[in-house]
């Protein structure tokens, strides 16, 4: 059972460390007098003190403050499972973001409006309109910004792509400290990954299941689950906007050539696009069956974009760490708000190696060499 106060919990950590109070304080950059006063209630632990204690003792700031871990731990499945690996990674990223929020570096992001409709499919479409206003156009081929980067920019959600070896397509995690993590599996099926990312974005924007939503197989269908119906409707409307499709197919005629071009421009699967066009009454049932049976690579070949498709597959197969979180952790270190260890842990490099690298970068080029570094 956790001890009842913050001071008691810190004392328990000092006891578990096997260090003297003075040595423990020195290890976190806090002199013995200040630590003693804080433990006796005569001084408040600063946010940086708590971040350093949490970092040194492998606990969360949330646990130090409340004595309770998040509900995520109880949701992790058996040891060695893919779901456990995904949830554990998401919780680790959320802890880093929560620590930044606690240090006074919270981010203000647009919040979805209250749904106008009571129908789940219509709510998904409404939510997609809101998301598109902040994300911009859904197609990113040829753009320097990826879909993951756009989600981080627009909504402050930390996006992680992780090798999971099957068993979990993705998850959405929202911590009590305000962190939001979207995790998807690295895969050679880029259309599935892209749909999963949009699907999990809906769960995060709606805060479905309160703190954790796991999709082991995002393609199994909604099966009557309201939040899944809404998330699927959102993903379809976000990745294949109605206005864009009606503009593209103004004459109401969809050929294999124009269909293939749309698949590659929107970066969606032929099956998904065919169903979307059918639902928008832009395609007949017979055409849906015919065009929906195509493979993405068939569409790439028909549109003369095999190279684009190959690059797309390669990109979706690679792991990705949250870029914005890396930048924010680095900034917190440079401003003296936090230690370098959280960033080193995220990058999986030794602290001293990272410190030397940062110090070397800070030296910068000589003035005469600046032109060599111009964009």
Quick tags:
375 residues, mainly alpha, four-stranded mixed beta sheet, 20 helices, 5% strand
Topology overview:
Layout: H1 6-17, H2 21-27, H3 32-39, H4 47-57, H5 61-66, H6 72-75, H7 82-102, H8 120-135, H9 147-155, E1 158-162, E2 170-174, E3 180-185, H10 190-206, E4 212-215, H11 226-239, H12 242-248, H13 256-266, H14 270-279, H15 285-292, H16 296-302, H17 306-316, H18 323-334, H19 341-347, H20 351-363
Parallel strand pairs: 1-3
Antiparallel strand pairs: 2-3, 2-4
Helix pairs in contact: 7-18, 8-11, 10-11, 13-16, 14-15, 16-17
Explain how this protein is built.
The protein has 375 residues and is mainly α. The protein has 20 helices and 4 strands. The protein has helices at residues 6-17, 21-27, 32-39, 47-57, 61-66, 72-75, 82-102, 120-135, 147-155, 190-206, 226-239, 242-248, 256-266, 270-279, 285-292, 296-302, 306-316, 323-334, 341-347, 351-363, and strands at residues 158-162, 170-174, 180-185, 212-215. A 4-stranded mixed beta sheet has the order 1-3-2-4, with helices on both faces. The termini are far apart. Residues 367-375 have low confidence and may be disordered.
Uncertain segments of ≥5 residues (pLDDT<50)? 367-375
* Amino- and carboxy-terminal Cα gap: 56 Å
Individual helix count: 20
Mean pLDDT comes to 86
CA-based gyration radius: 24 Å
Q: Structural class, please?
A: mainly alpha
**Number of E-type strands:** 4
User: Considering DSSP H and I runs of 4 or more, what fraction of the residues is helical?
Assistant: 55-70%
Sequence of secondary-structure elements: HHHHHHHHHEEEHEHHHHHHHHHH
Global shape = elongated
Beta content:
5-15%
Largest sheet: 4 strands, mixed
Task: Report the oligomer.
Answer: single chain
Major sheet strand order:
1-3-2-4
């Amino acid at each position: 059972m956790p001890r009842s106060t913050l001071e008691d919990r810190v004392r328990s950590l000092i006891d578990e460390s096997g260090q003297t109070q003075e040595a423990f304080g020195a290890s976190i950059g806090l002199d013995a007098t200040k630590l003693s006063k804080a433990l006796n209630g005569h001084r408040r632990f600063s946010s940086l003190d708590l971040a350093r204690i949490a970092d040194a003792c492998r606990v969360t700031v949330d646990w130090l403050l409340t004595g309770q871990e998040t509900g995520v731990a109880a949701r992790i499945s058996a040891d060695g499972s893919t779901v456990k690996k995904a949830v554990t990674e998401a919780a680790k990223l959320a802890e880093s973001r929560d620590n930044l929020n606690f240090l006074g570096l919270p981010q203000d992001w647009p919040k979805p409006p209250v749904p106008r409709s009571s129908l789940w499919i219509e709510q998904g479409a409404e939510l997609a309109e809101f998301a598109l206003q902040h994300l911009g156009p859904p197609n990113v081929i040829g753009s320097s910004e990826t879909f993951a980067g756009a989600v981080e920019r627009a909504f402050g959600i930390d996006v992680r792509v992780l090798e999971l070896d099957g068993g979990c397509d993705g998850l959405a995690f929202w911590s009590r400290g305000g962190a939001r993590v979207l995790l998807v599996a690295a895969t050679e099926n880029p259309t599935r990954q892209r749909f999963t990312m949009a699907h999990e974005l809906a769960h995060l924007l709606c805060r479905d299941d309160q703190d954790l939503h796991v999709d082991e197989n995002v393609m199994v269908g909604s099966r009557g689950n309201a939040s899944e119906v809404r998330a699927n409707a959102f993903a379809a409307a976000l990745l294949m906007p109605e206005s864009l499709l009606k503009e593209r197919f103004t004459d109401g005629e969809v050929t294999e050539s124009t269909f293939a071009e749309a698949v590659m421009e929107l970066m969606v699967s032929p099956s998904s696009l065919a169903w979307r066009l059918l639902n928008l009454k832009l395609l007949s049932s017979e055409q849906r069956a015919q065009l929906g049976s195509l493979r993405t690579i068939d569409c790439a070949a028909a549109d003369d974009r095999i190279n684009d498709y190959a690059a797309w597959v390669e990109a979706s197969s690679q792991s990705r760490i949250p870029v914005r979180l890396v930048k924010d952790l680095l900034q917190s270190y440079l401003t003296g708000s936090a230690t370098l260890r959280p960033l080193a842990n995220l990058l999986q490099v030794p602290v001293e190696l990272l410190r030397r690298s940062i110090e070397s970068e800070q030296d910068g080029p000589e003035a005469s060499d600046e032109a060599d570094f111009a964009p």
